[in-house]
Amino acid sequence: MIVQATGLTKQVLSGDQPLTILHDVTFQVEAGDSLAIVGASGSGKSTLLGLLAGLDVPSSGSVQLHGADLFALDEDGRARLRGELAGFVFQSFQLLPALNALENVMLPLELVGAKDARRRAEVSLQQVGLSARAHHLPKHLSGGEQQRVALARAFVTQPKILFADEPTGNLDAATGAQVIELMLELNRAQGTTLILVTHDEALAGRCGKQLRLAAGRVV
Hints:
Helix content: 25-40%
Oligomer: single chain
Number of helices: 7
Largest sheet: 6 strands, mixed
Structural class: alpha/beta
Order of helices and strands: EEEHEEHEHHHEHEHEE
Number of strands: 10
Strand order of the largest sheet: 6-7-8-3-9-10
């Protein structure tokens, strides 16, 4: 079991009233699985993803990531665990504008002091079909190319888990389909567990499992 969520609840104050965004969410994900978290806008999908990744803290409940109790750790401990286990892909790509494609992909490896960062980044860019664009800045790449760079960066550390938040949200249907294929291919090739939030029923249907939320509850 690589992810185990138990009784996850998230409340925030709306004015002076408590607002429950997630209510008692419990599920588990096996290593190597792909899980789509689906539901209407405002159903709590991105909040749940943030809790699973330890980017946010629940009001109650727990998350076990690869056997570690995420919320028994302090913020630095959670960041360390994320660095060891997880890759991230966002709707808005989150590439650094001053770095070219290759440098963006090298960055997570350089942050952990990997000696062969350049070679591994070149291989990762090749896997997403972007070797020819390695020295282009993000502003000179299309949206689909930027998302492929983001995928190369997420997979270059060979994470055990990839968290993706609306990875096709800013792409047209054809480009989105290419990115989906790539993500699922990397998921298969590396055995990475894939957990993604999506509105895209086609993408959700390609995942091994679906978790559907409505008003913060699992349906």
